[in-house]
Amino acid sequence: MNLILFGPPGAGKGTQSALLIERMGMKQISTGDLFRAAIKNQTKLGKEAKGYLDAGKLVPDSVTIGLVEETLGEMGDQAFILDGFPRNVPQAEALTTILNQLHLKVDKTIFLEVPMKMLLGRLTGRRVCKNCGATYHIESKPPKKDSICDVCGGPVVQRPDDKEDVIRTRLEAYETSTRPLKDYYKAKGPYVEVDGVGTSDEVFTRISQALKSR
Ligand code: ADP
Ligand code: ADP
Ligand code: ZN
């Protein structure tokens, strides 16, 4: 089963992907994670992407689509979750072409619905492990030991783009570019909207149920 998981920044896509990986053996393709890894390793891709991530703007499609094409090409028959891609209609159209070329298909597109007013709190409170990427939240999911990752003992920090001014730019990019994908996938199907409010386990149960429905 291959999935697209999309929704506004802070909706819980990364959190739910981690649960799908752990409980269903899927592999996550997160363009945000791929860009952050490239920036950390100071690769050519990282140098191209850095300014956009710092500013909270979308990386140009030519760069992003090439990255996804390469990653999907290496996927074999492993079940995957696309997290954070596509993020606009041109990316969605390019994805269709790439999937056809690779003889792959997406079985379901899930939109994770969280009201705008909750997103700011989720994003400003988000903390991530610098080492393994595990995600925490200062209120809903703090690490057991202050600023130390439960999983690997690495330092737990705030993402530089989780500062309030950058968050505003990201939410605007979502409104103008990503939200229109809802209508695109509604028309294209199979598409399902999942309520992202509640505990992570509650949301996961809803996603599991959505995966069983036709
Ligand atoms: P996204 O990948 O969509 O940007 P994340 O999975 O990183 O979102 O979640 C954003 C923040 O909200 C993180 O700090 C995470 O711990 C927290 N979070 C995720 N799911 C929930 C939930 N169901 N309830 C409360 N907080 C959540
Ligand atoms: P979020 O928590 O907002 O869902 P991500 O980790 O998915 O954050 O993305 C972080 C940043 O990476 C975005 O603000 C953007 O600069 C870049 N990015 C990620 N995915 C894409 C994409 N599909 N197209 C363009 N830029 C992207
Ligand atoms: Zn860690």
Description:
The chain is globular and about 45 Å long. The protein starts with a strand and ends with a helix. Helix 2 crosses helix 3 (44-55) and helix 4 runs parallel beside helix 5 (89-101). The strands form 2 sheets. The chain has a 5-stranded parallel sheet with strand order 2-3-1-4-8, with helices on both faces. A 3-stranded antiparallel sheet has the order 6-5-7. It has helices at 13-24, 31-40, 44-55, 61-73, 89-101, 116-124, 164-178, 181-188, 200-212, and strands at residues 3-6, 27-30, 80-83, 108-113, 126-129, 135-137, 156-157, 191-195. Strand 5 and strand 6 form a beta hairpin. It is an alpha/beta fold and 214 residues long. The structure holds adenosine-5'-diphosphate (2 copies) and zinc ion (ZN). Residues 9-15, 122, 125-126, 135-137, 140-141, 198-200, 203 line the site of one adenosine-5'-diphosphate (ADP).
Structural class: alpha/beta
The biggest sheet, with number of strands, parallel, antiparallel or mixed sense and barrel status, is: 5 strands, parallel
CATH H-level superfamily of the domain at 3-115 and 178-212: P-loop containing nucleotide triphosphate hydrolases
Q: Which CATH class of the domain at 3-115 and 178-212?
A: Alpha Beta
What proportion of the residues form beta strands (DSSP E)? 5-15%
